[in-house]
Write a structure and sequence with these properties.
The protein is globular and about 75 Å long. β2 and β3 form a beta hairpin. The protein is an alpha+beta fold. It folds into three domains: 83 residues, no CATH class; 108 residues, Butyryl-CoA Dehydrogenase, subunit A, domain 2, CATH 2.40.110; 150 residues, Butyryl-CoA Dehydrogenase, subunit A, domain 3, CATH 1.20.140.10. The strands form three sheets. A four-stranded mixed sheet has the order 1-4-5-8. The mean pLDDT is 86.
């Protein structure tokens, strides 16, 4: 594998970029550029535009209903979409539950759910974490008891990203307390509009509504919406988390953040000089760019492995560690570049509700909340400590 793209591949990248420029709604692009939170309707509107083009699942093969991009095209499409101002999609359907359905689902389940995932008609969220079960999913307690041809689900899930935008949840639930903790877990597909489901928003300190907590009160789920056999949840979860942690989306997001950092460096000054001319700051930028180049190479390798139907192994944990560290480092440099102007915090600006002008360059109001959010990336999707344990066991044999 090499990182040099052909003329045809670069032409493809330009085609994707042109599509985004022509079809990304101006109001959504403006919000993304300014760091303002999108509404549920805006998120779904962009997803449906990509779905209608057939590009919602750029990572899917043609035989599965995807666009059938080559390895290079998969990478370039994602890069062109993000670098031209598109928002991050709610990708649980295309990046997680979709691959699970293709690998473990019945023909009836694929026929029922896959087409609506590909068009973004149905949006999914992930029901894993609970108040007492975060990175250690073996501790989860949300229960599902079999009653005829239905499961009755009771309990709660928490820190659920974009549940308020979703129609359905793929959830890990406990169906047995008798066996080993991992063996008593089952994967169910839950309709979030079903009776007994309550979704409560969790508003973070920056005023954003990304996370939610869900409460299930005797929610009935057909056995036909169980993935695999009862007790297969742990095996399915490991398969799915490999796809989540090897997700290359943040590689492109990092590149977009790097571009913003360079714009700030060209605009901000220290001791009368531009930051772009400060040797110390330029050295930090060079270190960051090297890290990002390494993660780009890793992402291409993992795309190649996935395209060859090879399992996602411990390298997914390496990817998760390195990409999120670069994400955090970039936001640290943005904060440093913005200096005093990046320190104030007013949640009204993040939600597009402020009626006052920002003191200093207006792009800096997002630096403080974005920085603190980046700190959480060492926890989201499995904490760094858990990833290092995985590498110690699976890669180093410790």
């Amino acid at each position: 594998m090499h990182m040099n793209f052909s003329a045809d591949e670069l032409a493809f990248e330009q085609k994707v970029a042109a599509f985004v420029s022509e079809n990304l709604p101006a109001d959504i692009k403006d919000k993304v550029d300014r760091g303002i939170e999108l509404t549920r309707e805006e998120v779904r509107r962009w997803m449906e535009i990509l779905g209608q083009k057939g590009w919602a699942a750029t990572n899917w093969d043609k035989k599965d209903g995807g666009p059938g991009f080559t390895i290079a095209e998969k990478f370039l499409a994602e890069d062109a979409i993000f670098m031209n101002g598109a928002p991050k999609m709610v990708h649980f359907g295309t990046r997680m539950v979709g691959p699970v359905l293709l690998a473990f689902g019945t023909d009836a389940q694929k026929a029922k759910y896959v087409p609506k995932i590909l068009t973004s008609e149905e949006v999914w969220c992930q029901g894993y974490s609970e108040p007492q079960a975060g990175s250690d999913l073996a501790q989860l307690q949300c229960s599902a008891e079999l009653d005829g041809d239905e499961y009755v689900v009771n309990g709660t899930k928490i820190w659920t990203t974009s549940a308020h935008c979703a129609d359905r949840m793929f959830a890990l639930v406990r169906t047995s307390k008798e066996a080993r903790k991992q063996e008593g877990i089952t994967c169910l597909l839950i309709d979030l509009k079903a009776p007994g489901v309550e979704i409560r928003p969790i508003i973070t300190l920056d005023g954003k509504h990304v996370f939610n907590q869900e409460f299930f009160d005797n929610v009935r789920v057909p056995v036909s919406d169980r993935i695999g056999e009862e007790g297969d949840g742990w095996k399915i979860a490991k398969f799915l988390l490999g796809h989540e942690r090897s997700n290359a989306t943040y590689v492109s997001m990092n590149k977009r953040n790097l571009r913003k950092l360079k714009e700030i460096m060209a605009d901000q000054r220290a001791d009368g000089e531009r930051l772009a001319d400060d040797p110390g700051f330029v050295r930090k930028l060079a270190d960051l760019e090297q890290d990002m180049l390494a993660t780009t190479t890793m992402a291409m390798r993992q795309l190649a492995a996935a395209s060859a139907d090879k399992p996602v192994g411990a390298e997914a944990s390496i990817m998760k560690l390195r990409v999120m560290d670069a994400y955090k480092q970039c936001h640290e440099l943005m904060m440093e570049a913005g200096a005093y102007y990046a320190q104030p915090f007013e949640r009204g600006h993040i939600r597009g509700e402020a009626n006052t002008e920002w003191v200093g360059p207006d792009y800096l109001y997002r630096m403080s909340p974005d920085y603190f959010e980046s700190r959480a990336m060492s926890i989201a999707g499995g904490s760094h400590e858990i990833q290092k344990d995985i590498l110690a066991k699976r890669a180093l044999g410790l």
